[in-house]
Amino acid sequence: MKLSYKPYTLQLRHVFTVSSSSRVSTPIVLVEIEHEGIVGYGEASMPPYLGESVETVCRFLEKVDVKQFNDPFLVEDILSYVDSLSEADTAAKAAIDIALHDLVGKLLGVPLYKLLGLNPANAPCTSFTIGIDTPNKVAEKTKEADEYKILKLKLGSENDRELVEAVRSVTSKPLYVDANQGWTEKQAALDEIYWLSEQGALMVEQPMKKERIDDIAWLTQHSPIPIVADEGIKRLTDLLEYHGAYTGVNVKLMKSTGIREGLKMIHAAKSLKMKTMIGCMTETSCAISAASHLSLLTDYADLDGALLVTNDIYRGTTFKDGRVVLSGLPGIGLYI
Amino acid sequence: MKLSYKPYTLQLRHVFTVSSSSRVSTPIVLVEIEHEGIVGYGEASMPPYLGESVETVCRFLEKVDVKQFNDPFLVEDILSYVDSLSEADTAAKAAIDIALHDLVGKLLGVPLYKLLGLNPANAPCTSFTIGIDTPNKVAEKTKEADEYKILKLKLGSENDRELVEAVRSVTSKPLYVDANQGWTEKQAALDEIYWLSEQGALMVEQPMKKERIDDIAWLTQHSPIPIVADEGIKRLTDLLEYHGAYTGVNVKLMKSTGIREGLKMIHAAKSLKMKTMIGCMTETSCAISAASHLSLLTDYADLDGALLVTNDIYRGTTFKDGRVVLSGLPGIGLYI
Prior knowledge:
Largest interface: A-B, 26 and 26 residues
Number of helices of chain A: 12
CATH topology of the largest domain in chain A: TIM Barrel
Number of strands of chain A: 13
Strand order of the largest sheet of chain A: 4-5-6-7-8-9-10-11
Oligomer: homodimer
């Protein structure tokens, strides 16, 4: 097996603003693992506020010695080894995990969902994200998202209600709300959640800072709609520690170290009677296609990452009338 | 897909006594799922004290309509449907789970461990079980178990120390101890565990009745060796509820409803920093071979079920110098 990688910069269609920052591009690293002439593709995406960068990912990948494994089917051993190399670097680890799953599927000639025993007919609708912007711009973006049946709003700034009203001036579609830890006072947050629920919000992600577990648990207890962990639950150990504070969990490959641990998280969350969501960063269709296989198990999907960029370099999972459509090709299902 | 099944009676080499009962045979039901000429094999084993019987298993299997699924690769959907048919019937459900995994592996032409991303070189040694008996008989059985590197003792009766001393008169091999809920007083149990630890016991299974969670948690806190759940943790939901009371968990396919949920349990237990064990009932080499794939992930293995019977009808996973050896054949790896 041979690992190679190169940095790339994704250009965003719109300036992307969440409660903590704005940006126009996202750095990623593209990964390939080759074995006997077959290539598996993977990707690390590094939004700037999550602590990884092109430099940290490349430094991590430099350390990874996949040559010691002659057999790509030793997925558990290989990924345990990769995980043992550092504490963090979850996006870098995800890139290897994705490439390895793509490779294994291709070597067997079957799509990943078939290896995982999943049914492509269970694909959910994805939400489409509307970033924080002026009310006029939000209304405009909402119109552009006509094809998508569910909108995801980034809130947690001062003009939350204005933004929701701007969306509601255009459409009555159901909403997922992502506060990105932006709310600071629990009673005010609860009032906001009640209001959002009346406005058609189906759930709220990460209402307050992840460290404020007691306040989040209180919100979860009192909220009329599910409270879903994002920043608060990255990996399986977090899920098993903090599940009591949330109704659901947003699993993202770049947080979970990839498909393998993401799948373990979804199974554990289901057993804990939690709502499950598969999410993404700004990513190419490589990481999105990888995540789309896990969407066959989840209640919610937010897989619009590649739709928000202008220079995607892969094709794989697509969307039809807002619904996730897997390509059915071997591995994660890319065609280049 | 077509499901068929037939009852069978396993004859035991020795009268098998645990702390609650004795027996000379175990009823099982053999299951086959056929798809496009390929047959997957499964098995339900029903030790009499666990609540299932030939009658309940056949009644359950009668209800299962696999014909509605055209595609055996829809493993998650099929097994969710099967699980939804009743609250209990875990052995009957395991029989279908095993047959389906065998079928899927055969259809792809690869052993199950390869589909699961596991390394056959990680196979552990199995323990070999010595049932409760007279000291002379125990010494005799211990000699017969010469090939096996670890012995498992069924304790929890009045002459525990005599039995351990009978084993120690013959060998100094490490011991797993299974009390089968037999101890009733926690301080006496702890004293016994300390003594057993000095006698070379590496762990103790289910020291007290599973309902006595607080006493078991106290034992776990004070014990010098791991306390492993058997009766106390059957399925993933039990694991997530009761993990705090134990150091480890013995996953058995007949409890967990099969390979798929057993795998989820092992992953969750590892993430909870628990010790993991793969165990068995009295079974043919069919269910043992199925379980042996999961042994590639566990700390302990107790897969001697088929060694304790005189009329096994399959060949698959074997043992060499006490170590688990997977056949490498497609599916669960049987050859008939």
